[in-house]
Write a structure and sequence with these properties.
By secondary structure, this protein is an alpha+beta fold. It folds into 3 domains: about 15-80, no CATH class; about 80-205, 2-Layer Sandwich (Tetrahydropterin Synthase, Chain A), CATH 3.30.479; about 240-315, no CATH class. It has 7 helices and 13 strands. The strands form 5 sheets. Strands 6, 9, 10 and 11 form a 4-stranded antiparallel sheet that branches. A hairpin with a 5-residue loop joins strand 9 and strand 10. Helix 3 packs across helix 5. The longest helix is centred in the C-terminal third of the chain and has 67 residues, at about 205-270. It is rod-shaped and about 170 Å long.
Length: about 325
């Protein structure tokens, strides 16, 4: 009220009104941007779901920003390589994402299989995959059970010993069968790509492993004994052959020597004619030469006795004490 009792009406400040409107506008714009602008990162795909329309209205593959209606929902699916780990460290009792797969061999022995599967989602097929798995739980609901089933069906075709001897073959079959199972699973909609499968270990019971190790040790000892036997036989045969060859050589040498001696005597006899004393002297010289070379033989010379009056030389060994 004024001094005279009049009522005064104050007009609002125009500057304050404009500021208030700007703040309100910024709040509205901020709210709109908050509910409409989204981003998706590297190796991610955003699936945009419109609950009013009751369907998936699009996908956005990152990295990028995108706009959506405020009432629309967004599900982000990773397309990078992920691992499905099934293993157990029995010493520490630690496990992977899941424990090792328990399976029975062909002969009824329980084994534990450690395995790792690396897989990723194909961004081209995420819509159908999301429709079948809106909770993004395809690994838990399908990939892991399929892997356990594949391992158990494969191990059942091999005995416990064969799981050791044919480890590479078992690994190859598991890879082939699991990839086939994933391809044929309709709910996965060809959206899962298996990058690699690593069969890390097939763990056998301790008592069986000890029995196998003992058997292998016995086989190695048997092989070593057989090898030693064959080596000794080869060495014996080689020694015998060497002696045979030496004997044959010595026999040939004696034959050659005998033939050459007989021939030389024949030539000497023809040269000397009936001069027996000279022939006897020649034979004595040969005898002395032979004794000096052999050091252990003496010869008895029989002159005459043949039809042609030839000489016969007979070697007679001297006893070691004589």
């Amino acid at each position: 009220m004024g001094e005279n009792g009049d009522i005064e009406v104050k007009m609002p400040d125009k500057g304050a009104s404009i500021a208030g409107l700007l703040v309100l506008a910024l709040i509205v714009v901020g709210a709109i941007l908050f509910f409409t602008v989204r981003s998706v990162g590297v190796s991610e795909v955003a699936v945009i779901v419109d609950p009013l329309a009751g369907r998936i209205v699009g996908t956005v593959e990152g990295p990028r920003y995108f706009l959506k209606a405020p009432w629309q929902q967004v599900a982000v699916i990773k397309t990078s390589v992920e691992s499905l780990d099934m293993w157990t460290d029995w010493a520490t009792k630690k496990t992977g994402e899941w424990p090792a797969v328990t399976a029975l061999t062909k002969d009824g022995l329980e084994v534990h299989v450690d395995i790792t599967v690396r897989w990723r989602v194909d961004p081209r097929n995420v819509v159908k995959l999301y429709e079948n798995y809106p909770d993004l739980d395809w690994e838990t609901r399908t990939l892991a059970p399929l892997l356990r089933e594949t391992i158990r069906n494969t191990i059942a075709n091999y005995t416990a010993v064969e799981t050791i001897e044919k480890r590479a073959e078992i690994s190859r079959i598991i890879v082939e069968k699991y990839k086939e199972a994933v391809r044929n699973e309709e709910s996965l909609a060809h959206a899962i790509i298996i990058e690699n499968i690593d069969l890390r270990n097939i763990d056998l019971p301790e008592n069986f492993k000890r029995a196998v190790e003992q058997k292998l040790a016995e086989q190695q000892m048997k092989m070593a004994a057989q090898y030693k036997k064959e080596r000794l036989l080869i060495e014996a045969n080689a020694t015998a052959m060497q002696k045979i060859l030496e004997a044959m050589g010595e026999a040939r040498a004696k034959i050659i020597l005998a033939n050459s001696t007989a021939e030389s005597l024949k030539i000497v006899k023809q040269a000397l004619g009936a001069d027996t004393p000279v022939l006897e002297e020649y034979l004595r010289l040969l005898l002395v030469k032979e004794i000096s070379q052999t050091g252990g033989k003496v010869y008895v010379i029989v002159v005459g006795g043949g039809e042609e009056g030839g000489a016969t030389v007979v070697p007679v060994p001297i006893p070691s004490g004589g």
